[in-house]
Amino acid sequence: MPDDLLGNVQDTKLATALSERYLAYALSTIMARSLPDVRDGLKPVHRRLIFAMRQLRLDPGSGFKKCARVVGDVMGKFHPHGDMSIYEALVRLAQDFASRYPLIEGQGNFGNIDGDNAAAMRYTESRLTEVAAALLEGIDEDAVDFRPTYDNEDTEPVVLPGAFPNLLANGAAGIAVGMATSIPPHNAAELCAAAIHLIRHPEADTAALLDFVQGPDFPTGGELVEDRATLLSAYETGRGSLRVRARWSRSDLKGGAWQIVVTEIPYQVQKSRLIEQVAQLMAERKLPLLGDIRDESTERVRIVLEPKSRTVDPDMLMASLFRATAFEQRFSMNMNVLDADRTPRVMGLREMLRAWLDHRHEVLERRSRHRLAAIARRLEILEGYLAVFLNLDEVIRIIRTEDEPKPALIAAFTLTDTQAEAILNMRLRSLRKLEEMEIRKEHKALTAERKALDAMLADPAKRWARIETEIEATAKTFGGGPGARRTTISGAVPVTEVAVEALVEREPLTVILSEKGWIRALKGHAVAEAELKFKEGDRLKALLRCSSLDRVTVFATNGRVYSLRAADLPRGRGDGQAIRLMVDLGNEDEVAALFIADPEARYLVAGTDGRGFIIAGAELGAEKRTGKQILTVRPGQEAMLCRKVAGDHLAVIGQNRKLLVFPLEQVPEMARGAGVILQKYKDGGLADAKAFTLASGLSWRLGDKQRTETRLAEWLGARGQAGRLPPTGFPRSGTFGPPDDDAG
Question: pTM for this one?
């Protein structure tokens, strides 16, 4: 290696070298790729596309050219990056569902809202739109600065003149190193109105500007459901999160049936993926209110939603879809841009409009000075022409006789070099009298224009009035009239509470519990007990009809209650699963009762020792596997009964076949404990208990028949007494028979 190169070697820490290079890369990504300029709302690739298309004369009134030609020019002259990245940027500028005001008019397949890609660039064609022409207006009049291209062979604009408020009108999105931007599109007419208000009232705050800018106006429409306070906070700080919903309506059909038709979906949501998402959730039974979904879209969106039944509430159906699918989407607003000094920062609505207006003011001044210079050059030439017509014969003589007529003309008529050159270049046909009149007329008009421009440059008020006129013309050209807004601003909508039951499909189930503690669930309620099969030596203990949304309450002989989700119980025609594997039952404990607890009801809890109390149904829930102790059981005794009570009296019968009836109010209501003595026994314990209304009589089952005893005076007494033998015809089993409900 040569000595001179060895002398330039420097020792640098790897961390320092890496950090310097990464910082350079980060700055390049931020300033030259990802963040838009606040003045024209464009990233470099977009600006170079539009400028290259202008050089190709792809004006709105001209013909189309292949996109491959455009991409090739951009890549070769201005943007040394991959052709696909350039083409993707071009395609996005041409998609009317991606850009609120497309800057490029495409011919061919430029993709669709379903997410399908555009055709290859060799098949598609493009040209600029009127909006892009407005952004370029005045670019040849020294309105903006130019800089050398990457190879120093040409120049490109640093920023476009931007007669259209492109940044807020079309929005922007990008991810840089350590920062990102996400700006929603807006309505151009509203932006222009807000800008004019800001010109007239320079101290106007964001709240005043929101009287004109109602909120984002997405190209795909939809409904914005945020209140003014949320919008004000987002537009003041430049950051926020806005909810956008699909637009839908109910369509009535024959016979009382109906369907929902969705005509607009949230911005940046691919329709095909949205439908796939809904179909997947339907397959997973997470949208039980929805029966079917169909895509009937043509060039316009039309998604048809059929309810599961006619009784479904449309608002509830859509609320479940808004909660679970992309029919409602949050747009994260982060208005991070490059300011006029090329510094990235987050701006609010007022700052952005102010930056655009200041840019338009600078463009107006530069164009005016450029025009004044052009007028001065033209007036200089016209004054030379007028000198010719005043001394036409002498000018002709000098030209005919002098070998060097130019110095002679300058000396004879005190002309400038430019005037003398223009006179010598005049055609003979221009020496007619009519031409003289046209020159005088043009000279007078240019003199008046120069005077007006000088006056405008000297008076800021006149400059701002001129800008206001230009903005009014922009609003008239691109605003689209009063019905041009696509996104409806609905304000904060009331929250439609969707019950958990509405989000899970309700399936009828029959829970089967065997004597040996095996539990399972069968689909449906038409389950015949005679058809049930069990392991050898086992038989049916309890059969409970419920739904997959219910929680099954298990009351055990240890006095504890447990809760099981019916949907979690083992399915099928097999033996099921041992209930001990699902709840923590002791070795000697068994299931005493299986039922669906009603939180609004009251229940009688009792043990074999004849003690018990009333407990509220809401206290019978137990989320833990270990359950909850409600009845304290004495050694040698068991909990045996947990039954819903309704009426004014309680009938209890012991294993000694003694019946006692007493007022139900004598039994206290408790949350847990051992309870009070319901009936006194010398031998045995409690056999059964039943609450009833005394006026209606006490009923019991005897075989397939039901008997009712209304003359109960001899069995009436007080709680804790022994009672008397039951009426004639009372069952030999010593119980009242199966309860009227599924509790106990």
Answer: 0.70
